[in-house]
Amino acid sequence: MIDDEWVKQSHTLPLFNTIIITLIELSVIFALLVTGICIWKTKKEKIYNFIDGAFIQEKLPIIYVGCIFGLIMAMVFVSGRNGHPDEWSHILSAGYYIDSWLPGAVDDPEVLKTVGGWGISYLFRIDIVYWFAGKVSSILSVFINDHYLRVRIFNSLLFLFLGLIVVFKTRRAPLLVLALVISPQIWYIFSYFNGDAFAFFLSMLISWQLIDTDSLTNQYLDSSGPGDKRSGGLILGVLVGLTLLSKMNYYVYIVFILFVITWRFFSGQECLCFAPDRIRLYIKKGIFVAGIALCVSLPPLIYDQYVNDFKKRDKILAVAEYHAQREFKPSTMRNEISSSYPGLRLREKGVSLKQLLFQNPEWRTMSFKSLFGLYGNMDIHSDGYYYQAVTYMLGLFFILVFFCIILSVPIQDVIFILFVMFFIGLAIGQSVYQSWVYDYQPQGRYLFPMIPMLIIGLTKMPTLFRARVIPVFSLIFFILSVWSFLFTALKMVQKIN
């Protein structure tokens, strides 16, 4: 219950114990750091040769992908059908599109079958993943009987596709490896059916197109004519259009991508001379990509409004009023908000932003844990030492990034990185806003747009940093992620009956 007692909760140790534990931890970290520096100074050349070798640069990513895909498939087959957040509602939504090709009206009897206790359905909003999953499930029905298993396999194949890109592009885009191994929570969303994995998949494809210098999108952006290498613009437009039809928390990522492309055109990185014909060329390219994105996203959205008589919001409220449990009904929100579900409309209930974020650590703690390893129905926690290790490794990584930026990154790239940090802040802010104004959900999946933003920002780091530091931390985070996924997720999640 989110009330005064919830706000006043304290999870801190006595001050003396906290100081002692902190000093011990800092001493161990300092000793390990000194040891690492000594080894690096005496064995520097050998370490460099090893990191630059084929094993670290080319073979390890293949091992990562193979191991991760194996762990994901294990979770696909052994986990129970009620062991993951809202999975059954997602599965029912995908099932609607096994036989249907077009979105149904909110009050369609087949759509109403997917409405839960909240009085809403995932089908109320156009989320293209359910269409794709339904069609893949229909195809796989020839080989696999269970619909829930077919849509899980659909999600796992999305990860496999990303993994194959990593395997073939690891030398040119080592940052993609880091993005896939940095958190086992990423693996987890691909191991059961949900609406988040597909949106993350699309965001990673867009990032790959922008950071790989040989990608079709980069060839299009670098071309000298609006019609040259047009397939690259087509790919980018389709990916952006599909993202517009996916999870709404990725909208900030779309704005970020527009910023990245605009920065690319006007930052001088392409020897841009501000001649009118050059500017017109880039405007034409932008219009082409935007046009493709709108051609992909607008027809489903317009049809969805048409089939609901352009009164979709009113229909949703009517269905929610009829089907929702009392604490979730719109009338309860409107007339008896104190009787509504405790996590809804915290701002209207008098919880301040200060109380939400600072007086009680739950939002911060749960968001961090569910970004780096929280399983089941948000109730299976990894070992405390795991979260500490992740925190320290993240701290060390960003300290190295900070010093590298100060010492060797041009001021223009520093400004770009500051803008990246601004958009990452927006991604965090929208999650905070969702929990405070609408529904209290401190879930790390809402923060996943930060990951593709981060890898695009890290492209501004020096080549040696990306070639040597990134693979080392990829190995570290892979080991930590396996620790969490293997010994917590697979061990403790509810198994299939």
Notable characteristics:
globular; 497 residues; mainly alpha; 1% strand
Structure description:
With 497 residues, the protein is mostly helical. The protein contains 23 helices and 2 strands. It has helices at residues 4-8, 15-42, 44-52, 54-78, 87-99, 109-112, 128-140, 147-169, 174-181, 184-189, 196-211, 216-222, 230-244, 251-266, 276-307, 312-323, 330-335, 353-359, 362-372, 384-408, 411-438, 450-458, 463-492, and strands spanning 374-375, 380-381. The protein has a two-stranded antiparallel ribbon. α5 packs across α7 (128-140) and α8 runs antiparallel to α9. The chain is globular. The two termini are 32 Å apart. The mean pLDDT is 88.
Shape: globular
Low-confidence stretches: none
Protein structure class: mainly alpha
For the biggest β-sheet, the strand order reads: 1-2
Number of strands: 2
What is the strand content? under 5%
Using only C-alpha atoms, the radius of gyration works out to 24 Å
Helix content: over 70%
Provide mean pLDDT, rounded: 88
Give the N-terminus to C-terminus distance in angstroms: 32 Å
- Main sheet overview: 2 strands, antiparallel
Count of DSSP-assigned helices: 23
SSE succession: HHHHHHHHHHHHHHHHHHHEEHHHH
Write the layout of secondary structure elements.
Elements: H1 4-8, H2 15-42, H3 44-52, H4 54-78, H5 87-99, H6 109-112, H7 128-140, H8 147-169, H9 174-181, H10 184-189, H11 196-211, H12 216-222, H13 230-244, H14 251-266, H15 276-307, H16 312-323, H17 330-335, H18 353-359, H19 362-372, E1 374-375, E2 380-381, H20 384-408, H21 411-438, H22 450-458, H23 463-492
Antiparallel strand pairs: 1-2
